[in-house]
Design a protein that fits this description.
globular; alpha/beta; six-stranded mixed beta sheet
């Protein structure tokens, strides 16, 4: 497993690499103030690909569609010719990217609670609620689904559907959850053995 910074994780064996929430591009002040178009800094992403020796990403997943979890995923899908597994909001985002850049990033619908088999990996997506950014006041940042098609302005990156993932492999079982507040009811549904508490970046394993 490789933590790529911000929110990203790459999990690989000898044959296959999958990625979740791999992001490198950061917004500037003008994005926050003027709601400018916000997409990958492609040369930066390519440098990061080389730095982390990323290769042959076969599938890419996301935990939700805030900008710091998805802004670079469409470009990574294009670069590696990987399949992006998308729910409703993420699919709209990728379609907007394809429209703006005249590209054809591949997507497949992300099934809820139904395992996806990718070579030796079995990935199950569990729907969950994104916890509040400011818990004391129950305040969410850009709550709701992505609605704007063919637009990738900064504030289009709404929360969307939120997922955690159970990733099973002959060598390991991983539960990936980007939240700092584990959902105890969801954890109780997972098959043992699951070890919680360790962290790789912000990912609970």
């Amino acid at each position: 497993m490789t933590w790529t910074g911000i929110a990203g994780l790459v999990i690989e064996d000898e044959d296959t690499s999958i990625g979740i929430d791999i992001t490198f591009t950061k917004p500037q002040l003008t994005h926050w103030l003027l709601n400018k178009t916000f997409t990958s800094q492609e040369q930066l992403v390519i440098k990061k690909i080389q730095h982390f020796s990323l290769k042959n990403l076969k599938a890419i997943f996301n935990s939700h569609t805030h900008f710091d979890h998805v802004v670079d995923l469409p470009f990574l899908g294009h670069y590696f010719q990987a399949t992006l597994y998308t729910s409703e909001s993420f699919k709209i985002l990728v379609e907007s990217y394809n429209h703006l850049f005249n590209r054809k990033v591949k997507t497949k619908d992300l099934p809820s609670l139904t395992p996806i088999i990718i070579d030796n990996f079995k990935i199950t997506a569990f729907p969950r609620r994104h916890p509040p950014i400011l818990q004391r006041w129950n305040w969410h940042f850009l709550e709701g689904k992505i609605l704007s098609k063919n637009s990738l302005q900064f504030y289009d990156y709404r929360e969307g559907e939120t997922w955690s993932y159970l990733i099973e492999h002959p060598k390991a079982t991983i539960y990936f959850d980007q939240s700092g507040i584990p959902d105890r009811e969801l954890l109780a549904q997972l098959p043992p053995p699951i070890v919680t508490g360790k962290q790789i970046g912000r990912a609970h394993v």
